[in-house]
Amino acid sequence: MSAAFSKRRLGLGTSVTLALGVALVPALASADAGAELGIRNLSSVIATPASPSAVGPTCTQNVTITSLANHDLVSTELGYAGNEYAMLRARATVEGPWEQYRICNFPSDGYWTIQSEADGLFVSAELGYTGDQYAMLRARASVVGPWEKFTLVPCGLSCTSIQSLANGLFVSAELGYTGGQYGMLRARASVVGPWEQFR
Q1: Which one of 18, 40, 154, 159 is separated from 192 by 20 to 30 angstroms, measured CA to CA?
Q2: Is Signal tagged as a keyword (predicted)?
Q3: Would you say 100 and 120 are in contact if contact means Cβ atoms under 8 Å apart?
C-alpha cells in the first residue's frame, strides 16, 4: 500500500495519526494473493473472520502472538538446532523478524494455519515427540498436513486460544520450564487456563 493510497483511504485521520506517531491500518483481509500491511495481533485477526463461503484462504501477514500469562511475544527459535530448530517460545519483549507470523483461515475447511515469516515454514504440533516435548510447536513444515492445522477460539476480550486439530488439545506456554525451553509452546492442555491464553 503506497503512502498516497493510505492517505486517500484514511483521509484526514492519516495526518493526525502520523503526527501522533501512531499508524492506523484498516483491517483488510485479503485472499492468498495479498495480505494486510502493518502489525496485528492474533486476537485482531480472528475478530473479523472470513465468510464460510469464501474460496481459498484469507491470510494476514505480520501478526504477533503474545502470551497473556507472561506478556511475552512468541518467537520462532531459528538459532536452535536438531529437534528444537524453530521451536515456538513465549519469551521476547521486543518484536523482531522472529516474532512475526502469517495467519491463514480456511473457512470452508474449518481450520487455520500459522506460518513463520522468519523461515517461511508452517507451524507443526510435534505429536511424534514424547515427554516434556510432546506436541511442541515448531515452524518446520513446507506443506500443510494434519499437524499444521489449528482452530483459533476467542476466550474473552483480546484473548485467543489455539487448539491443535490433530490431537484436540490447546496450546500452552510452558512457563514452568527453565532455560532455553522456558515459554515453549505445546499443544497439550484439555482446558483453557492462563497459560493457554494469547493475544
Answers
A1: 40
A2: yes
A3: no
Which amino acid is it at 72? D
Which single residue is written with the C-alpha cell 498436513? 145
Supply 81's cell numbers. 538446532
Q: All 3 cell numbers of residue 75?
A: 518467537
pLDDT digit string (tens) for 8-30? 333 333 333 233 333 323 332 33
Helix, strand, coil percentages in the chain from 3-state DSSP, rounded to 5? 20, 35, 45
155: number of Cβ within 10 Å: 18
Domain 32-196 sits in CATH 3.40.50.1000: no
8 A C-beta contact, residue 155 and residue 126: no
Query: Contact at 8 Å (CB) between 25 and 37?
Result: yes
| pLDDT value of residue 100 | 98
